[in-house]
Amino acid sequence: MLTRLSTYLYRRPRLVLLLLLLPPLIWFVVVYLGALATMLVNSFFYLDGFTGQVVHQFTLETYSKLLDPTNLDIFSRTTVMAALVTAACILIAFPLAYYMARFASPRMKTFLYLAVTLPLWSSYVVRVYSWKLILAQEGIISWFAGILHLTGFLNWYLSLPVVGGPSLSVSSTGIFLVFVYIWLPYMIIPIQTALERVPKSLVEASADLGAHPSQTFRNVILPLALPGVVAGSIFTFSLTLGDFIVPSLFGNSSYFIGKAVLTYMGTSGNIPLAAAFTMGPIVIMIIYLLIARKLGAFDAL
Predict the structure, then answer these.
(1) Are the CB atoms for 234 and 240 separated by under 8 Å?
(2) Residue bearing the bigger pLDDT, 107 or 50
(3) Tens of pLDDT, residues 175-224
């Protein structure tokens, strides 16, 4: 029986492939796409202001509330933060990834791989709370500022209206620093992988033709590494858009998308508005991917 079954499957490789892919496909369609479809359907309902009950009637009233100045401010604040975090991660990750791909010895490359991925071995919450202690008013950064006689500069910086706060642990700067630290490995690895795929012969040919190193980087290396940059930025940008733990621990009264969804879902019980908010990051990421495709970021894949 088993021999006949194995022979039958051996002669039908496509059937074997289908059987292997069927369980994850079912999980993807039912759980992931099913959850997105449920959120999409709920976003077209609305909350009765008198009874506090969800009215299961199709309407665009919930989406119209997203155009309120307060909610638009939440979207803009979150998008700007995600863009800044992504830009900072690219600036930090690219030199390190380039060194790992081009100049590091095998032993050094292994060490750097471990150094980059080691924070991911610990709990996300533990890493976030560790930064709460680092950025606190009595933390190590304030201590170093005191030793270097920069306490006055730190206090002046914290007094600024947008980036400041009572301390670094309760400020937009603190949120930015923690986001960069948390998501940086997700930028380094894709860029390093993309740079590994750049043939050395192309770099050597560019040099043989008299190109300056900056020209080689701009015209040869960067276009071929762009898919890795885009892949990393998808991680950093989308994860920043939806995160609610970091803004809740390090933020002030200013809301981000994830924090707003948590509030509407839990405290207010306004599930339709929370569902409508979750559609925001999806639309933003679709626009981002379309722009990246328009710029040719996926041509080298």
Answers:
(1) no
(2) 107
(3) 999 999 999 999 999 999 888 888 888 887 887 788 787 888 888 888 88
Q: Go through the chain and tell me how many residues it has.
A: 301
β-partners of residue 55 are 46
Give the three-state DSSP class for 58: coil
Beta bridge partners of 47: 54
Instruction: Name the nearest CA neighbour of 271 among 30, 34, 46, 27.
Output: 46
Count CA within 13 A, CB hemisphere, residue 109.
14
Residue with structure tokens 């207010």? 268
Q: Which two tokens stand for residue 161?
A: 């209206």
DSSP sequence for 101-136: HHT--HHHHHHHHHHHHGGGGS-HHHHHHHHHHHHS
| pLDDT band at 298; cut points 50, 70, 90 | low
CB 241 within 8 A of CB 257: yes
Q: Which two tokens stand for residue 287?
A: 């626009």
Q: Is the pLDDT of residue 111 over 80?
A: yes
Q: What pTM was estimated for this model as a whole?
A: 0.85
Structure tokens at 261: 């969804």
Domains of the chain in start order, with CATH, are: 69-294 (1.10.3720.10)
List the Cα angle 254/257/261 in 5-degree steps.
105
